[in-house]
Amino acid sequence: xxxxxxxxxxxxxxxxxxxxxxxxxxxxxxxxxxxxxxxxxxxxxxxxxxxxxxxxxxxxxxxxxxxxxxxxxxxxxxxxxxxxxxxxxxxxxxxxxxxxxxxxxxxxxxxxxxxxxxxxxxxxxxxxxxxxxxxxxxxxxxxxxxxxxxxxxxxxxxxxxxxxxxxxxxxxxxxxxxxxxxxxxxxxxxxxxxxxxxxxxxxxxxxxxxxxxxxxxxxxxxxxxxxxxxxxxxxxxxxxxxxxxxxxxxxxxxxxxxxxxxxxxxxxxxxxxxxxxxxxxxxxxxxxxxxxxxxxxxxxxxxxxxxxxxxxxxxxxxxxxxxxxxxxxxxxxxxxxxxxxxxxxxxxxxxxxxxxxxxxxxxxxxxxxxxxxxxxxxxxxxxxxxxxxxxxxxxxxxxxxxxxxxxxxxxxxxxxxxxxxxxxxxxxxxxxxxxxxxxxxxxxxxxxxxxxxxxxxxxxxxxxxxxxxxxxxxxxxxxxxxxxxxxxxxxxxxxxxxxxxxxxxxxxxxxxxxxxxxxxxxxxxxxxxxxxxxxxxxxxxxxxxxxxxxxxxxxxxxxxxxxxxxxxxxxxxxxxxxxxxxxxxxxxxxxxxxxxxxxxxxxxxxxxxxxxxxxxxxxxxxxxxxxxxxxxxxxxxxxxxxxxxxxxxxxxxxxxxxxxxxxxxxxxxxxxxxxxxxxxxxxxxxxxxxxxxxxxxxxxxxxxxxxxxxxxxxxxxxxxxxxxxxxxxxxxxxxxxxxxxxxxxxxxxxxxxxxxxxxxxxxxxxxxxxxxxxxxxxxxxxxxxxxxxxxxxxxxxxxxxxxxxxxxxxxxxxxxxxxxxxxxxxxxxxxxxxxxxxxxxxxxxxxxxxxxxxxxxxxxxxxxxxxxxxxxxxxxxxxxxxxxxxxxxxxxxxxxxxxx
Length: 900
Description:
single chain; 22-stranded antiparallel beta barrel; signal; cell outer membrane; 46% strand
């Protein structure tokens, strides 16, 4: 006997609301007392047991494909990043300088992108092959075609008992459409009213049924223009601070610059005619306030092609064969700094000038006019992502049970192209090396005129090359699951679900071998990083009707990972209750344990070295009493060097999450929910950010605390030149950021959502929605001996403290109009000295159905053209990552349907 589900009034109301104004015909039938069929049971994210309602013991947020258009979202990532539950600061494609400028990710509850599990149709995807911030693994959200998205379900809180590792902060399940009829052609084009950053998109989506075969395909082609710093007036030049040095000679023995004479005037046309002689405390040099914005993209250039196809074949009445394939190709480019040269950069940056009989250091920043355009120094990435799933599903003969058996393979490849100076660049500017002195300092007899002579593009090509890196990640999984009715209790049937999985994943980061062969101007080795791990899992889940209005859900799952000669097994469980004291009211509670196996990058990372694009030496700023917005040691580019290595001794993270909530739905036109959530993680694996380490080091040294666990650790990680050094005394030499198991972190808060539908005879249907999330508490402890830190008041924590989304949609006839408001709560300013005030942005869209085949849409994001200013940290004069400098953006979208 097949399992039957009673659609309770509350569930029916929720489903009607999820469908919006699901059609006047449906509403009229309900008002007339007509009997409507119960919707089929579906699998909701966070459970493998089909149910007739999205309501359950844990809150699930749903974004529909229609929402992506009406609320002004550009793509799947844009929709997810604007979730109120996505409170965490992340670096993405539009961050500027980042390790992963061709990828986008989110951070539910501010717990980091590696603590949110991203699934495609309930299946895992390969990690992005380059680690986020050079440390953690994550899933890229940039390659999912929005045209085939049916809905996105977001479960906040631990779900390892169902999905295994990674699901500590929550699960994002992107569910694609299962069928289509005919062909839809979608054209979309947009631009910004302030200039730059335009984009175009073409989508083709279609499908049909051919007897027992149902097929669907989608093709998406995207082109996006870059947005340069110089294209925004407020950041087109550095104001009120020393301009960026372009050319200088320094007497290292005295610490003073050597006057460049009339060289600056001869180079005055460079950087758009902004080059001047600048005189500071240490002397004069050539400089320009336009260097940073000239060589800076705030939005990456992007060209991508994404293809998706699926097929279902009814082999028999009880068995269906299925296959899905996703392929994405993405080419992106950005720019974060121009080409510059510092003498003897592979040693101590100074040399013995045989002509002047002094130790000197030389520097030259090369302009776009000399190299053939600013794009000549772009970094670029060619990415390819693929995913294939196939298997069989259906009913187990002679039972009410359903099963699914399948195989999933996912692959991600990225080829990077990074401009680098060649090994001959010192001799280009200084002439031949004449040996070394008794202290090992190189000797040159350079011509000063060479430093001030402008380069030609051919000369620039002779001293620069391109390093090509190849990165890859993959995952394979075989899984078998089944669900059905086990037995009956007085209150109803007990439903069970079981799952067994076997998988393997791996990655490799292969730098250009020429880096270690002396081809480029570096002596820092760059090693191959690679590794694999296996896992298997067994899980069971049960839905138990305890009483007529009280249901319980329990689940347990055991996962075992094998990697680097280590085997680590974890058991996770969850339990939830649903109580309906009245048909209009649902009370729910849940508790779950979760875990995360250490990121593969943390485990296998070879000793890696590099440098940050910019760094601020907070200690020297504080020691000299200089404010950050004008400190000579702030936002130094290029920044400090770092050293990073993996560790095979890391333990798995252990998480616990709990929730309490209520859903009140007095009618099919209104519902409201309130949920409290609490998440704790022990043994958190982390690399402290270099900026945080520098802040901690400054606070500890200035405060005189050198022995507390956090201070001792921070000071040991920041390696400085001796104060007695001839060159760069006291400057940062390198920052060590190897991973550790931190003591603990915890975060708690509330989610509120409400929806109301007003149906009128004369003025159409009005749908209003509100979603609000607030972090009530966020505390962490780096080491067990540290005091508990309040992260909400930490001015180095860039996470949102609260977020609010509100929308109003008016549907009448062939028109649908939506106003969408987003309020962002307080975040620290760029200097980390105070909080910025909350900000509200508005999006608006109009969708008009021209006829049965054609729909025209117009959408405007940031309707009032707001850009949040923040001069506290200096250029670029806005809080990078929290706010966008783009301003108002507009799109026109046309969709035409071929077929019946």
